[in-house]
Amino acid sequence: MAESIIRLENISVALGGEQILKNLNLNINDKEFVTLLGPSGCGKTTTLRIIGGFQRQDSGNVFFANEIINDLPPYKRNVNTVFQKYALFPHLNVFGNIAYGLHMQKVPKEERKKRKQEIKKRVEEMLALVNLRGFENRDITSLSGGQQQRVAIARALINKPHVLLLDEPLGALDLKLRKEMQIELKNIQIKTGITFIYVTHDQEEALTMSDTVVVMKGGEIQQIGTPQDIYNEPKNAFVADFIGESNILPGVMLEDYRVEICGRLFECVDKGFDDNEKVGVVVRPEDIEIKPESEGFLTGVVKSCVFKGVHYEMTIEQINYPYTWLVHSTDAAEIGDTVGMCFYPNDIHVMKGEDIDYSYFSNVPEEDTEE
Amino acid sequence: MTDIIYIALIAIPVLIALVLVFGSPKRKITKVSRIIYLTAIFVFTYLPIFVLIVFSFNSGRSTGVWEGFSLKWYEELINDARIQAALLTTVIVALSSAVISTVFGTVSAIGIFYMKKMPKNIIMNVTNIPILNADIITGVSLLLLYNILGIDLGYASLIIAHISFNIPYVILSVMPKLKQMDNNIYEAALDLGATPTKALVNVIVPQIMPGIVSGFLLALTMSMDDFVISLFTSGPVVSTLSLEIYSMTKRGITPEINALSTIIFVIVIAVLLISNLKNPQTDKKKRRA
Amino acid sequence: MKPFPKFRLKRSVFAYPYVVFAIIFLVAPLVLVIFYSLTREIDNYSVNKSSVNSPEVIMDNLDFIGYEQDPVLSQVGTYYYDGETLTVINYRERHPETYRIFFENEKISLIEEYEGDTLIDADLKDVKFLNRLKGVYFTIDNFVKFFNTGDYMKVFLRSLYIAFMSTLFCLIIGFPTAYVLSKMKERTRNIVSVMFLLPMWINFLLRTYAWRTLIEKTGIINTVLESVGLPAQNLMYTQGAVILVMVYDFLPFMILPIYNTLIKIDRSVIEASYDLGANHYRTLFRVIFPLALPGISSGVTMTFVPAITAFAISKIMGGTQCATIGETIEREFSTDMWFGSAMSVIIMVLMLASMFLIAGGDNDGENIGGGLL
Fold it and tell me: CATH number of the domain at B80-288, please?
């Protein structure tokens, strides 16, 4: 069993009259890559700032290795941060920025000379770690976004923190660079064995890098789990919708392993609900197969079909039931065709569903929920 | 009636100039008229200064009638204890008030920057008072204050008065630099182990340095050039250059004071040229920042 | 577990000394001016020292000083005056009460209760402080005097006119200058804008005086005119001369704020205007001018305010015929600070009103002062 390194207990924060965090409880284990994921305003950055010591919670406790650190200022916490816009010191060069943390440490007078050599060595190590060898004397303003990012990471890692906090560090980079940095960050995490707490609103980033994903909304944690859990077994409609794309529709759990959707009976793998309980049903678009009209469980009319590279993204309006399905398929279909759809018990995910606003999750083609 | 003639004399050429100056930059006439316009403005600006410098070399007593070249007034200047004392007072008051206001103003600006919105707005409006207020009212009101508090007029009252109108300039030139600064930078310094004091000295101050420097220069200039506020707050004994010149305008100015101004002017130009030649790069960067 | 030190991120404490400073040296003086403008000295307040030779005279004058309610002094008793302290022996109480009489300018300024040794050591300045605020009464006479005296109103209106004309000319001359400057290459315009600031290093009184030598009756311009065969002009001691020098002195304060806003205008906004089919003049009036308004308004304030109260310029250039309100305030203040304060308050109200009009109710404040920087 991994050891707990950071623990948040009943944390509440209000800023400017608005409740940002509501009674948050979170445990983060040592050497883990944890991602706080959620839409903007969900409280993920505030959570990070509380761990970093920049924000004081109104109530609750922060534990670091089982010690309360509520009143410990940032400069005494064994935690370092990579800031959103890097927050590099523009008046210092690359070396100055990276060495800043070491310069801040108190050193006895007699060791000063030796210390200089050591700082130089450590900075070089860090530059090697982030692939920036030979950049010591460069001006910060002369670096590209990706290079600044690396300097920010090196600067935060040089003090050998127990925990590294990253606040949407890749937000300002272009897509290709972002993918590269994702892999690199993961490698750095494995190499150094430091706990990473990573804040992002990009679900793909969260799934790619994390050991554990914490999905947040409105100051509350929605679900904690491995990327696989989160994707395959979303606890509620919000998580299902936020992570990947999904079809969310109302159903009735007739008995264990049997669920009724769209007036049809389906077999599924879920159990433990009351008989005839109203539930929400999630079917991922890529799990739906397009078949000829006669072979499908459900039939519908193709409303749109867009080529997305790997697959076609289709919206299919069901016949006899007011729901529009989102389908990812490698086969194209003509708009206006009537097609059959089928999916298997494994692909159906059932969750509690009394208070889901289904209209919000409908896949009407005009609506583009992506930012 | 004479006013109308004056207005016509100035307004008509200006209006013609306006039409020409604001024309399309592609047309040659626009370019030419812009250069002519700017040259005219510079002639207007530098004509009195040129006259002033020329007459510092006059051999006669007049600052308006040329009687021949001589360095007589420069010699007089070296021997004039009164003017030298006034110059010394001016420099002491300007330097000390500029230094005090720069330090005090910078620290205050940082504090104000981190205040809550309401008190911040109030204190910034108060800070604007001496800049917006007429000098004479600032001077008169300070005189009343000294009177009430029983502070005798002299060096102390003069320096305090200068500090009180210099600080706002420092605060107003430091403030924008604080606003431009990424707030995370301060937090980053704390995060890396700097105490708040260290973060202030190591990180915030270097960031706002251009603002501090321009605030200091502005304070120095304002202090050197001030006349009205000094008139009310200096008392009978202490006299600055401005006050000395003012009392001379009643008796008639001798070219001696022209000589002093010429020397100051030449020194200022020399300092500017040297600092520009030395590092034109950093200067350029500072302006852009 | 070690107790951690309490941690506070409050950096606003750095401003607290300044808040105190600002209250004393920026706010309090203005409050004082307003206080003085609404009060006058009680005329009978002072009693001549030369006439104070007996306790009876002091007692006679007590009414004026406001001690008639004093339980001891107002009672019948025997008095003894030794030149400094007044001793009253109350018949009923049977023990002496001693008062100290303060003189200022040979007049009784205050009578204080004398409590043993303490008052002897008391700082006279404190007494002065009390004195200043005690011997006054509230009135609007100062304002009535100003508005009822034709001469003051004449001077006031003249100052308004001169300040308005100076500001207008500054704007007409300054805006194109700032515009042309802003269109120059960055390096050139930096040098040129410094050149506009350079004259400020020559004392402004001297610059003003230099104009005098230029336009005097026997001045340089007239010498030139006569050598060409034109008649000499009588330019000195006219309003025109005052306006000319004001425009000259305050022009940088108009150019710099406008220039600073003009160079901050996003180029693409202007290009968008051209792109949408506007020609130069239209772009100027529809896009550039409105965007430069904050700079213009701060320039106008920074010119108008000093122009209305300037007194050295009008004294040097205008002589006695062109006396301005600034000169009047300076002169009156040395003889009657109550009336002088009232005039200052009138100027302050006028300036606030004009600022409010110019800024269009935008009380951000930063635009106005910040424009120069």
Answer: 1.10.3720.10
